[in-house]
Amino acid sequence: MVAHKHGTKIPAVLIAIALILCLLAVFFSDQLAEALGGKSIEMEYEAKLFDTSEIINIDIIMEDEQWEEMLSNAIQEEYYLCDLIINGTRFNNVGIRPKGNTSLAAIVNDPDTDRYSFKLEFDHFVKKQNCWGLDKLVLNNSYADYTYMKEALVYDMYQYLDTDASLYNYAKISVNGEYWGVYLALEAVEDSLMIRNYGTSRGALYKPDNMDGMGNGKAPGGRGANVSKGADGANLNYSDDVLDSYSAIWEGTISKTSDKDHRRVITALKNISEGKDLASYMDVDNLLKYMAVHIFSVNDDSLSGQMAHNYYLYEEKGRLNIIPWDYNLALGGMNGGDATSVVNDAIDMPFASTQFFDALLEDEAYLSQYHEYLEELVDRYIDGGGFDEFYERTRSQIDDLVQTDPTAFCSYEEYQTAADMLYQVVQLRGDSIQGQLAGSIPSTESGQRADSSALIDASGINLSSMGTMLGEDRGRPGNASDSGTFPDNPTANPPDNSSLEPGKPPEGSDSFAPGQDPPEVSGSFAPGQDPPEAFGPSSPEGLPFEEGASSEESADNRSDIKKNLVSYGIYLAIMLLALIFLKLYRRRSYPKK
């Protein structure tokens, strides 16, 4: 009788408990997904574009007049229409524009070169279009870097520590089949990168920038002028709760944001400045990795140097993160100067009173973790073979391309000297950091000023030979052709596109040639202006996203599906356990007579 009395109540209780557990699993699905392997998503373009064992071949297909017009109007940074052939696959109606800040202005004012960096936006003219899941690709021109390797090296170090950063690879760039130069290809810090790293593009992304005025910026060892670091919030210092006090952050908004999003950033900065519960307001582990690589790089064109720019700020659910950017001026490239001060750049308290980073390094546990990441870079990457592998692979890939680079900023001999010098500087930088970690070399600027006897001697190093932004020999082209013309380079080996007429889509394509009006649309549109809504062929074949969904929406859907599958699996497991328990309970409750 007892068994029958409670036989209906107990199963009901068990089912209720199972349902409650399922609801809790739904509520904490993000935490469960992260605990079961994180929320990052593997994207097809990782293997297609950023497998560094083989460089990318990119042929830009444009009418000569359009190409020359774009170069002539580079300072406007307007998008023009082009087709791209990437490793043999054609992408039609892609947006292309020159990009840059100081480097762009310098090249605009230099009559001897048109070697701009470029940004390729696959969905600018054709909604939903992407390159194996990538929305935007950046092509950097190695301005002020005769080594061609500084930026690639830094990104390789970020990858070594598994830091949230852009993927990289070298790219052989041709224009209408004619070799233009070897560039560094980077995953743009936009939707695709956020999806790959965070599983969604719905976080808030900013690119703060403040280069105005003169102030008390860091300039150790006589390295360069003192430039203001961060009025209007770009230095990430908390000042007050007024939104306008952080205008440099909001003006650099990449994703759609609101005042509510902005207030979450200010709340985080306030708590960070007070040292409160840092792990709730910062992605501590990733930031410590960022700091380790960034400080190794001695990049004065950044928060740790003289400028409050060249980084991205990412916020999700009130938690802040930094995504690195722009390292062509690393290792003394900002303005040359004393090599010994660059090699021995102090590793402790290096961000010139930036509260955001000071708060981390004032915590003994986080300081120790930061030191461990520096030690890993030096002992395992520099001394353990990672750097040698990068250096030898890169030299084998680009030496011949640099030798025949028709738009190069330096001669091949200058490149060889610069590359050899880079190897020495990196080794000496590693030696100094090793000494600073061991205590044999002072690890603060004040300590080094008080006693410089133990510093690594780099007096034999000529930093300017690696290229410098403010040097007298700033980087005039060694082999460049006349401005606005394509080089005649019989030694180059462009991809075989002989069957393709420049500017003409493949037979049977719905595309139209760059510079022509789109079909079924009357009139024309200016470069940089979006075509009418009715315009645009479908995405190229073989891309991973379904027709009818944008790259952002589709990848977000994939992220949601993945998280939902994890959640559903957990719910199912809970229900099965409940049913098994219920069955066992019934057997015990109703023994056979």
Tags for this model:
alpha+beta; 593 residues; 19 helices; 3-stranded antiparallel sheet; 39% helix
Quick summary of this structure?
This protein is α+β, with helices and mostly antiparallel strands and 593 residues long.
List the helices and strands and how they pair.
Blueprint lengths: L1 H5 L2 H19 L1 H7 L8 H6 L6 E6 L2 H9 L7 E7 L2 E11 L2 H7 L8 E5 L14 E5 L9 H11 L7 E8 L2 E10 L3 H8 L5 E3 L40 H4 L8 H15 L4 H4 L2 H14 L13 E6 L2 E6 L14 H5 L11 H7 L2 H19 L3 H18 L8 H27 L6 H6 L100 H39 L4
Parallel strand pairs: 1-6
Antiparallel strand pairs: 1-2, 2-3, 3-4, 4-5, 5-7, 6-7, 8-9, 9-10
Describe the structure.
By secondary structure, the protein is α+β, with helices and mostly antiparallel strands. Among the domains are: 68 residues; 187 residues, no CATH class. Helix content is 39%, strand content 11%. It is built from 19 helices and ten strands. The strands form two sheets. Strands 1-2-3-4-5-7-6 form a seven-stranded mixed beta barrel. A three-stranded antiparallel β-sheet has the order 8-9-10. The radius of gyration is 27 Å and the shape is globular. About 19% of the residues have low confidence.
Q: Main sheet, how many strands, which sense, barrel? A: 7 strands, mixed, barrel
Q: How much helix, percentage-wise, in residues?
A: 25-40%
Distance between the termini: 14 Å
Which whole number gives the mean pLDDT?
81
Poorly predicted spans: 33-37, 213-222, 224-228, 471-561
Strand content: 5-15%
Q: Topology as H/E string?
A: HHHHEHEEHEEHEEHEHHHHEEHHHHHHH
Shape assignment: globular
Count of individual beta strands: 10
What Rg is obtained from the alpha carbons, in whole angstroms? 27 Å
Secondary structure class reads: alpha+beta
Widest sheet: strand ordering? 1-2-3-4-5-7-6
Count helical runs. 19
